[in-house]
Amino acid sequence: MDYSPLMLSLKVAAISTTVVFISGVFFARAFARKQFFGKSVIEAIFILPLVLPPTVVGFALLLLFGKHGWIGKWLLEWFDVQIVFTWLGAVIASIVVSFPLMYQSAAAAFNSMDDRIENAARTLGASEWRVFRTISFPLAWPGLLAGLVLSFARGLGEFGATLMIAGYIPGKTDTIPMSIYFAVESGQMEKAVFWVVIIVALGFSTILWLNWWSRRNMLRYANENRSR
Fold first, then answer.
1. Which DSSP letter does residue 52 get?
2. Environment class of residue 51 by beta-carbon count within 10 Å: exposed (0-12), middle (13-18) or buried (19+)?
3. Residues of the chain above pLDDT 70, percent
4. I want to staple 130 with a disulfide (CB 3.0 to 4.6 A). Which of 95, 126, 151, 199 is the partner?
5. Helix 4-31 crosses helix 137-156 at what angle (to 10 degrees)?
6. Which of 117, 93, 114, 106 is nearest to 22 (CA)?
7. pLDDT, tens digit, for every residue of 86-124?
């Protein structure tokens, strides 16, 4: 059995989750409790991939990153980098479809915090970076972790947009979802069942761990409040 789809899926999910976590936290923090002209439009664009069909997202990425696309043409001419039909295309597809989950989780976490604690730290002379590092981030961490785990699971299972921009090239772009689809297409049902079991196990383990971690922290906070 060739395990390259597993390794590629984990690689794509890990890279996309890292990018999504950093960018999602940045934008959620920047927009938290702030109102400005165009905020609703920007947030709608952020969330749009969550409600659009994956093939539509993939088609949009194909237009942007194709050889004649605005970004794809520039990358090819200046850096000799091709995105379409490479594993980088799979990474970009995973980033786009999982970003809304991270952004929503991070935005909810930051908006639910008591800003009086942050303001008190600022009054005492703490810089914005120190406030974020020592107060905002630790307090928002449960929500950020939830977004992180869900983004990883979403990136691991991405199929539609990946098929459009990365295609199916054995050994290069064959993630687990792609391997399942084309195994069924070619009548290799045992191979399809094997990868279905693997990805279900990975997804189930991820969600199970998140639920366990959340319950453990809730119990810890409850015990701390009782001791006070």
1. S
2. exposed
3. 96
4. 126
5. 140
6. 106
7. 999 999 999 999 999 999 999 999 999 888 889 999 898
Answer yes or no: is pLDDT of 225 > 60. no
CA distance 169 to 87: 9
pLDDT in tens, 129-151: 999 999 999 999 989 999 999 99
CB 84 within 8 A of CB 67: yes
- Specify the pLDDT at position 220: 73
Please count the residues of the chain.
228
Nearest to 156 by CA among 89, 91, 86, 62: 91
Instruction: Quickly name the fold that domain 4-227 has.
Output: MetI-like fold (1.10.3720)
Q: Give 111's contacts (C-beta < 8 A, 6+ positions apart).
A: 32, 33
Six-digit token string for 61: 């990425």
User: Residue ranges of the domains in the chain?
Assistant: 4-227
Cα 86 to Cα 95: distance, rounded to the nearest angstrom: 15
Structure tokens at 184: 């069924």
pLDDT single digits (tens) 150-183: 999 999 999 999 999 999 998 899 999 999 999 9
Residue among 162, 148, 140, 137 nearest 207 (CA)? 148
Burial class (CB in 10 A: 0-12, 13-18, 19+), 28: buried
